[in-house]
Design goal:
With 139 residues, the protein is of the alpha+beta class. It contains 3 helices and 6 strands; from the N terminus they run αβββαβαββ.
Length: 139
């Protein structure tokens, strides 16, 4: 058996591996009820003030990215983006939501939104840091 180690992934290697993995996983997932959810806020000039990208996967809304500009922090925009995404997830059949955050990011914010800490991964990605995984029951 031949094994190769690479330090820079080629698009071809990555796509081949993901194609094999997805082919195997298809037997376990019905992806008919999967899809992207994006929620964005722009100012009058069209400049992005904040946004959220999530994926609806089965009965879950997986919040992948949330960002609010420095100028808009503390204005309630983050809460509005979360609430809007959750409502969209509910419309699409999500019963629960999942988010992860690092210790230098927004753990108290997500807890204030009603998310419960499920797991802490210590020393990730660096010693002294943590990665938190939180969930919330939606409707």
């Amino acid at each position: 058996m031949d094994v190769t180690v690479v330090e820079k992934l080629s698009d071809s290697d990555k796509n081949d591996l993901l194609a094999g993995l997805r082919s195997y996983n298809r037997q376990f997932f019905n992806k008919d009820n999967w899809g992207d959810v994006g929620v964005f806020s722009r100012n009058e000039e069209g400049i992005l003030q904040g946004g959220l990208i999530a994926m609806k996967a089965g009965g879950w809304l997986n919040i992948e990215y949330l960002w609010v500009s420095e100028e808009a922090r503390g204005s309630g925009l983050g809460s509005l983006l979360m609430h809007t995404a959750e409502q969209e997830g509910i419309k699409k059949g999500a019963q629960q939501a999942l988010v992860d955050t690092f210790s230098f990011q927004a753990l108290p914010f997500y807890q204030k939104q009603g998310y419960s800490l499920q797991m802490t991964l210590e020393d990730f990605p660096n010693p002294g840091m943590q990665r938190y995984y939180l969930t919330k029951r939606l409707a």
